[in-house]
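Input record, target 12 of the design panel.
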C-alpha cells in the first residue's frame, strides 16, 4: 500500500466488530492486531502469555494500583503501555495495519493515516449473535454483553481523551444490525477507500 493506513476498530460486545476488523484486514491485505499482539510482546520480553492476557483491555484497579514518582505498579497499565509501544513502533516504521480495540485510536492519533471506526448494534442483534457464538442462554448473553462493554468502557476512558462509544471520538460509527456483517464491511471498505483517495 503506497499510503500508510492505520485502521482502528472499536466495538460493542456482540456487534461483530472483530469479524468486521478481520474482513477489512483481508480486503486491504493488512495484518490484524488483536489479542495476537500479546503473543509478540510475550515472546519479545520473555513473559508468560497467560499473565499478559489476564490484564488485556482491563481497567486499572484503583484500590491496588499506586503511582510513585511517575512510576505505576499497575499490571493493567503496564500491559496497555506495552501494546501502545508495539503499535507506535509499527506505525513509526511506516507499516499499515488494522487494530481491534486496545485504545488504538488514542495511541495512533498523531499519525495522518489513522481511520478510526466504532461498530455498535441493536441490543437484540447482539444478544442473538452472542447466544449463537458463545452457546449461552438469552439471559447469559445479556450478562456477557453488559460485563464486557463495562470493562471496555472503563479501560478506554481511563486511558483515552475521547469517550468510549461517543461518536465524536471516532471518524465513523456504524450499526452492524442494519446491514449485517458483510454489508457493514462493504460500507466501511468504501469509506476507507474514499479516505485513502483523499489523503
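The sequence produced for target 12 reads:
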Amino acid at each position: 500500500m503506497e499510503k500508510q493506513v492505520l485502521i482502528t476498530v472499536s466495538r460493542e460486545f456482540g456487534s461483530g466488530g472483530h469479524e468486521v476488523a478481520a474482513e477489512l484486514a483481508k480486503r486491504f491485505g493488512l495484518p490484524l492486531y488483536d489479542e495476537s499482539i500479546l503473543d509478540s510482546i510475550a515472546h519479545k520480553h520473555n513473559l508468560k502469555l497467560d499473565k499478559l492476557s489476564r490484564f488485556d483491555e482491563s481497567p486499572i484497579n484503583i484500590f491496588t494500583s499506586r503511582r510513585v514518582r511517575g512510576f505505576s505498579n499497575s499490571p493493567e497499565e503496564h500491559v496497555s503501555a506495552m501494546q501502545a509501544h508495539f503499535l507506535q513502533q509499527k506505525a513509526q516504521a511506516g507499516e499499515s495495519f488494522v487494530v481491534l480495540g486496545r485504545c488504538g485510536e488514542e495511541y495512533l492519533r498523531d499519525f495522518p493515516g489513522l481511520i478510526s471506526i466504532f461498530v455498535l448494534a441493536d441490543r437484540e442483534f447482539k444478544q442473538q449473535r452472542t447466544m449463537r457464538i458463545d452457546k449461552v442462554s438469552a439471559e447469559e448473553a445479556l450478562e456477557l454483553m453488559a460485563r464486557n462493554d463495562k470493562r471496555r468502557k472503563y479501560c478506554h476512558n481511563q486511558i483515552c481523551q475521547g469517550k468510549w462509544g461517543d461518536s465524536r471520538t471516532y471518524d465513523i460509527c456504524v450499526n452492524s444490525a442494519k446491514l449485517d456483517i458483510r454489508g457493514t464491511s462493504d460500507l466501511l471498505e468504501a469509506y476507507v477507500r474514499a479516505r485513502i483517495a483523499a489523503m
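DSSP finds eight helices and seven strands in the chain.
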